[in-house]
Write a structure and sequence with these properties.
The chain is α/β, with parallel strands linked by helices. It is built from ten helices and nine strands. The longest helix is centred in the last third of the chain and has 61 residues.
Length: 307
């Protein structure tokens, strides 16, 4: 896992950010999923592949408890690169979440002396749905289903039996301005930076005037550094504790930019002075050469006249 994934995984692991993303994408901005109803659902495991153990790790997975009863299991995957195997990975993640639920039922049955035998589960023991959203930060296209990665035969008789598995792919760079504005947590600034509905000038103006408090300053700035490639965000976060206004961060970044510009101007000034000195030296050398040529030409003329 790269540093970019670690930054966004940390940010989206916070319940308020996790709930905000689900509410924005699934419920169109309505507050349906409450932060206090979220509980981590651990599905990280090892699976056997070719006789060897291989890790299977999710970015973030939480169960939605309503009235103390599991309602649905949500997963968030942060994807920066156009990994064409993503549909298969997500299918594996979701299977593991279902398998965990089946294991829990089996453990319950064993504990209470219930023996469903070959049925494994009782008729009333039903798993809750697992829904995974893939937050895609990249620009290149990424397959949206496993069928998009299949070499499917032309045989129609076969085709109708081929089962597809589609991704819930959220292309953050394709968000409109209206969609980006639906986010209420710190993730809104990630969405706005990536959204095609915002231009840099407009976003910069908004940041400088925003009094909203960043709840997760470090994680937000680390994620912004990852998606923009601007390392000033990392430098800025070292000066701040959690709970800082967005405008303060923007002002710090602006001042850092001013200081960098001053240093760059000073460096350019020194380079220019060095270039001017080198040019003056070259001109002086050329003048000396020209004088020498004129002297030799005059000497040549004098010798011709004496012959």
């Amino acid at each position: 896992m790269g540093q970019t994934d670690l930054a966004s995984n940390s940010l989206t692991s916070h319940p308020d950010v996790f709930a905000d993303i689900i509410n924005t994408i699934i419920y169109k901005g309505r507050t349906v999923l409450e932060t206090e109803n979220l509980k981590p659902f651990y599905v990280n495991s090892t699976i056997t592949k070719s006789g060897r153990l291989r890790g299977l790790y999710r970015d973030n997975c939480m169960e939605d408890l309503r009235g103390g009863i599991r309602y649905v299991i949500w997963g968030l995957e942060n994807q920066y690169v156009p990994d064409r195997t993503t549909p298969f990975k997500v299918m594996g993640y979701n299977f593991t979440a279902y398998d965990r639920q089946i294991e829990a039922f089996a453990a319950y049955n064993k504990k209470h002396g219930i023996h469903p035998y070959v049925a494994h589960l009782l008729p009333e023991q039903k798993v809750k749905p697992v829904i995974t959203l893939v937050l895609y930060y990249g620009k290149e296209e990424i397959p949206g289903s496993i069928c998009a990665m299949m070499d499917i035969p032309e045989d129609i008789s076969i085709r109708k039996y081929i089962q597809d598995y589609k991704l819930n792919l959220i292309k953050l760079r394709k968000l409109s301005k209206r969609q980006a504005n639906l986010f209420r947590s710190d993730f809104q600034y990630i969405a706005k930076f990536l959204s095609e509905g915002y231009n840099k000038k407009e976003l910069s103006k908004e940041l400088k005037t925003s009094s909203q408090i960043l709840t997760h300053t470090k994680d937000t700035l680390h994620t912004l550094a990852s998606i923009t490639g601007d390392q000033r965000y990392l430098t800025a976060q070292e000066s701040y504790k959690e709970g800082l206004a967005v405008c303060e961060v923007a002002e710090t970044l602006f001042q850092m930019g001013v200081e960098e510009s001053k240093k760059e101007l000073e460096q350019n000034k020194k380079k220019l002075e060095q270039q001017e000195a080198a040019l003056a030296q070259a001109q002086s050398t050329i003048a000396e050469k020209n004088a020498e040529i004129e002297r030799l030409r005059a000497e040549n003329e004098r010798l011709k006249q004496t012959q």
